């Protein structure tokens, strides 16, 4: 038996074991497949051999449809930073509900919420609220291009910034092997999905993460570069923090060439220990 055949055998045994111990999850997923592509509400739920189907969650624990209990290390991509169904949050929601849930207008609590962010993050002057990370990064690019009048945006290889066409490149799913990815110092821009608008990512250049060659590439494009977007801790690539010195130099060089530096912190969960990254 070859190594690949042995790996396939182990994987198949694992898949069969998971499916056998999850009959209710399997049935729910099969039913979902009749009304949702691949049986999932979002492509990020896909898993081999089947997605987790959750029944409920409390604190640090989560239970699947087959009543198996797990330690919830995911916490809704860190949205549930206080744990699942925390009493304080539930109480606040219950208190607010009778006043309505969506006004489509300004409301009197916005100031306090925005002020909280400004007070917590040194150097943050103003806050804008968005419906999703994808929307936030899209607006950030537009702001950078609109303000500088320059066309190019730089992102880092492995960095994920949402699904819009400008940044749906080079976060690691495609590439066709090491040759397709380009040299380490000068990664190629690789679209991650068929169906992107022709040329939408033509103005997106890709930089090597935590690598000094990134600064050479920024310099090469300096007069056409509107902004550089970075995850200070790359999430989808495997929770890789940017080196502090790397971020400090990135701040310095973007300031020098008059380009925006955009920190995308969607799933770092606004944790206290990410604060030092903001304060140089
Ligand atoms: C760093 C980062 N940026 C952007 C996004 C996109 O956010 P959303 O899924 O809310 O569009 C994500 C999602 O996980 C993310 O991790």
Notes on the protein architecture:
The chain is of the alpha/beta class and 280 residues long. The protein has 3 domains: 1-51, no CATH class; 56-100, no CATH class; 129-278, 3-Layer(aba) Sandwich (Aspartate Aminotransferase, domain 2). It is 34% helix and 12% strand. It has 9 helices and 9 strands. The protein has helices at 3-20, 23-32, 87-96, 110-120, 133-148, 178-181, 213-220, 244-257, 275-278, and strands at 54-58, 61-64, 69-71, 152-156, 204-207, 225-230, 233-234, 240-241, 260-263. The strands form 3 sheets. Strands 5-4-6-9 form a 4-stranded parallel β-sheet, sandwiched between helices. Strand 1 (54-58) and strand 2 form a beta hairpin. It is globular. The model is unreliable at 272-280 (pLDDT under 50). Pyridoxal-5'-phosphate binds next to helix 5.
What's this entry about, in short?
The protein is of the alpha/beta class. The chain has 9 helices and 9 strands. The chain has 3 domains: 1-51, no CATH class; 56-100, no CATH class; 129-278, Aspartate Aminotransferase, domain 2.
